[in-house]
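During the second year of the project, the team shifted from modelling isolated chains to modelling whole assemblies. The rationale, set out in the original proposal, was that interfaces cannot be judged from single-chain predictions alone. As a representative example for this report, we include one of the complexes processed in the last quarter. Its constituent sequences, exactly as entered into the pipeline, are reproduced here:
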Amino acid sequence: MRWVGFAILVYLLMLLQTTVGKLLTFPTESLGVIGPDFSAIAAVFLALRVRERNDVMIAAWFLGLAVDLGSAGGAGGPTVVGPMSLAYVLAVAAVFRMREAFFRDHIPSQVILSLVFCVLAHGAWVTGQSLLVRADATWSGYGDMLLQAAGLSCYTAVLMPVAYRLLVRCERWFVATQPGARRGRAMR
Amino acid sequence: MKVLAGLTKPWMVALLVAAALAMSLAGRGCSSRLRNAVQPFLTPFGDAGMYLAVALRGGSRSEGLSPREARQLREENQHLLDEANYFRRQWEEARRDLDNVLKLSASFGPAIGTACEIIPARVVAEDSLPYGQTRAVNVGARHGAMSGSAVILTDRSKALPAGLAVVTTAALVGRLVDAGAFAARMQLVTDRDFKVSARIRRLVDPNRPREITIIREGSAAREVLTERNSVPLDVQAVGDGADGLVVSHVPEIDNVLPGDLLVTAGEGLLPVEMRIGRVREVQRDPQHPHHVTLKVDPEADLSSLREVYIVLPIAPPPARAPSGRGR
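Output from the structure prediction step:
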């Protein structure tokens, strides 16, 4: 990982997600507001492209922290910072384990893995925040938020292939070149 | 530094996980301080981003009109202009009367009015996740903003095609839930956790008369709603978590219709009466017979919110006259 480049990427993603990215959100009658999670897209991208698992988990922690810092409402009052970092680390570890069974450049693989990531991360976040924040939590309120998380996950998964192609173009700024892969290409 | 340099990556992951757990369990105070520390770094570029987002949202909404629609709009505009002229004359007469009454009242009556400080602010960021409906504004405790203050959108001018008037609007858009030194976070009226004491003001329209049931001295009577018998209905409004508000348990006999106004109750959050939204839909409540649920559209366009004012009462509001009907 190139950590300086990665820090800039996190900052840009945070800006994008809290300003211009909101152009992609839309309200629905049954699910509430649905919008994409750009940080989740970046986390899945790193899980597919970075060789070392610990690097991916550290990067996911910071992405989750950025999401938590940029969001203050949702689960029955101001939310706490921290659960999304944990949720991202757990979800990215699961995706990292699963990646061997997928071709990373195939669109269905990207869609499925980002869907799995978002369902795990956002499901865990909604549950965690409901437990930590909400004193008067109701099952229906919790169910509504889980449904919204499912909608968000599907929407993010649909956007993943497009974002993947964009991120591949600027990958060299935040992912260290894999020496093995470069040598392999040179020998060919 | 030596300790950090000696850390292996698995240990680093373990430390970060422990830190996340500690932050989660530390509660809202710690989270609030962390957010307030980070927000100033986002504000300069966030402001530019929000400018772009609002500009793009505005651009995406401008749609062309067909010749038929344009003709209909011209006719409707002419009709409205005639009506507006009529009401303007009426209003000027009423204002003269009111001025006289106010002069007398100021001379001989007790002092009334609420002293408020109005703090202009600008929305610089939205929520990173769609679960909540909060916005970050670029003023904080150092500018006088305090948690719990009302946020209104007032005198906001919108550019319209040449030849038309410039309109202004005034509406409650939310309240501050957190205020740091340089930035604050506002909860929109559409947030799931937004609750406000409000009133329904039913519009008296001679073209659309409606019957209401009035209970006087134990007996009920059906009457047509007029200015004289139209009392505001005290209600509790909550955000629906998407793009509107919901008012539950409104008696069917009050005959609230789409188009009626939801206004602040003039106490608590905002010590004056100000519009919050307009009733979009009236639904029967299957759980509570003879009651309806109202779906309300916010008065302000919350998707392109930029310039807002934070209202900070600096003196206790005067006692409110019991004009509304309680629930």
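Chain A has one domain: 3-14+33-172. The beta strands of chain A are 26-28, 32-34.
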